[in-house]
Amino acid sequence: MKNITLLVILLLSLHVAAQSEEMAVQKTIEAFFDGFHKQDSIIMKQTVSEEPILQTIGKNKEGETLVRTEKFEKLIKSIVSIPDSVKFQEKLLSFNIQIDGAMANAWTPYEFWLNDKFHHCGVNSFQLFNDGSGWKIIYLIDTRRREGCQ
């Protein structure tokens, strides 16, 4: 009986530790979007590695599906330069987080709103690395579409 009790306690403590790490990953992503919405480059930079990779999957004007790669600094400049008269919000709808040691993946479906009107939807896929001081975003790829969002 003692062995079963010990096993249950061990399993519960492992589950709690895993949930704690998942929350730390989620908090990093939420902090990234906090900086994004506040147009605060300092907050955004605190959540990413030194050279994060950013990519987007979407269609061009001809309807071809392409992958675009963007420099993080270009994203920062474009977010910071949005005029105060423009309201934008990326609403994360859920988090599906998987962790293996110092690596994590987070899948976050989203809706993007511009001036309180629906603009597009998609999914973000974050890859994160824990360098011992906390989780940092090393790779972000997203999809963007206007149809099939509900």
Give a description of the structure.
The chain is α+β, with helices and mostly antiparallel strands and 150 residues long. It has a single domain (2-143), classed as Nuclear Transport Factor 2, Chain: A (Roll), CATH 3.10.450.50. The chain is 35% helix and 42% strand. Strands 1, 2, 3, 4, 5, 6 and 7 form a seven-stranded mixed beta sheet that branches. β5 and β6 (117-130) form a beta hairpin. The longest helix has 37 residues, at 2-38. The chain is globular and about 65 Å long. The model has no long low-confidence stretch (mean pLDDT 91).
Quaternary structure type: single chain
Query: How would you spell out the order of helices and strands?
Result: HHEEHEEEEE
Task: Outline the biggest β-sheet.
Answer: 7 strands, mixed
Give the overall average pLDDT.
91
How many helices in DSSP terms? Answer: 3
Do you know the CATH topology? Nuclear Transport Factor 2, Chain: A
Q: Tell me the total number of β-strands.
A: 7
Name of the level-1 CATH class: Alpha Beta
Count of domains? 1
Share of residues in strands = 35-45%
N-end to C-end Cα span: 50 Å
Structural class: alpha+beta
CATH architecture: Roll
Protein name: Nuclear transport factor 2 family protein
Organism: Poritiphilus flavus
InterPro entries: NTF2-like_dom_sf (IPR032710)
Keywords: Signal
